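Q: A small favour: would you put together sequence and C-alpha cells for a protein?
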Amino acid sequence: MPDQHIATAPEPQAEALNDRPLVVAFVADAATETALREGLVDAAPQGIEMRRGSARAAIQALQKMPTPRTLIVDVGGEDQPLSVLEELSEVVEPGVRVLVVGDREDVNFYRQLTHGLGVLEYLYKPLLRDMVARHFGPLVARGAQANQASNGGRVITVTGARGGVGASTLAANLAWYFGVEARRHTMLLDADLHRGSCATLLAAKTGSGLRNALEMPQRIDELFVERAAQPVADRLHILAGEEKLTDQPAYAPGAAQRLVEALRRRYNFVVVDAPFSALPLHRDLLNLAHQRVVVMDPTLAGARDALRLLALPNGPMQPSRAVLALVGAGRPGGLTVRQVEEALKMKPDLVIPDVGKSVGQAASLGTPAAQPRGPFRNGILALAREVAFVRLLDSGEPGTSALAGEKHRRRLAFWKRRA
C-alpha cells in the first residue's frame, strides 16, 4: 500500500470543516447565563460561546454558522417549545448534542424532550450553579453514551441502469438541492474512484480521503470525515476520488458500513452515486441505503437493465422497492413513455423530459442544472419529495426552497445521542 495514502495532509479548505465551536449556548436572561458559565467552568475549560437570545434566535444564527458539537438552547417563554425545537432540528447537523433550558416543571414535557426528541438533558429555571455542574457538566465534558440505534442521516443511492443515462447528474443535483436550497447538511459520495464525475458537475475538488477510508476503515471517525470532505457550499460537501486508471485501490471488508455510519452522524442526507458492478464496495453501498434510485433512459436496453436492478433484494433499511426515474422522455429516436411502460409492465415513479443541451451546458460550466426554473428542476424537486419523505416548499425561485414537515418523532431523531 503506497505510503502517500497513509499520511495524507488535509486540504486547506477541508481543515476548515473541523473549525466547529465546542459549546455554544443561546440564553434569554443574565441569571441563566451566569449559572451556565459558573456551572460549566470545569467541564468546558476552553470556555463557552454565550449568545443572548431565544431559541428562535438560535435558529436564525445556526443557519449561517457551523453547528457546534454541543448546543445549549433556552426555550423559556416559548408558547410552543416543541415546535420551535422541530424548526431547530432542520438547521443543525444530526450528531449535535442538545441540552435544553426552559421554564416548565413538567415530567411529561421532560420525557417528550429526552425520549421523543433526542435531547440529552433538560433543566428548568431558575438554574443553580451546582445543578448545572451536576446534570449538564458530565455531558459537556465527556458526551453521552452513544446510541447504536438507527438514528442519523438518510442514505440515498442513485444508480444508472446503464452507463451514460444521467445518474451522476441526478445524484449531484439532488445533493445540491438538499444542501444549498433546502439548507440540510448533505454529503455527496461518488463511489466511482476512477471516472466519477460528481465533483466536476459541481466544480468541486477530489482528494485521497475516500480511498484512505476504504483502505483503512479503522481511521474513520468524525475528525477524519471532516478533513476528508471537500466543501461545495457551507452545507454541502463531497467525497470523491480521481485515482489512476492503472491503480486499483484496496477495499477493506466493512469499510463502506463504517464510512456510512460516520457520515450519517454528521449529515442529514448522504447521497451516493453508486454504479452497479461486481465490486464489493458498490454492492455494500446499495445494501446500506435507506432508499435506492434507479435511473433509466427511454430504450429497450434501459428497460431491461432497470428491471434487473429493481429485482435486487432490498437491504435491511429499505422497506420498499427502489424509485424508478425515467430521464430523457421525448428524446428523438427514443421510446415514448407509453412504450417504456409497456416494456416495464409498470409506470416509472418519475419522468423527466428531454431538456436538450441545457444539462450538458451546465455540466461543462460546473454549475447546478437544477438551479434555473424548468422541467429538470421540477424533476429534481419531485425526486427529492420521493426519497426524502418530506413535503417540499418551492416558490420557483432559486434559494427559496426548504424541507419541511416530517413528524417530529422522525425528524428529531436526527439528534442522535453520541459520545
Notes: The mean pLDDT is 85. Residues 154-388 form a domain with the Rossmann fold fold (CATH 3.40.50.300).
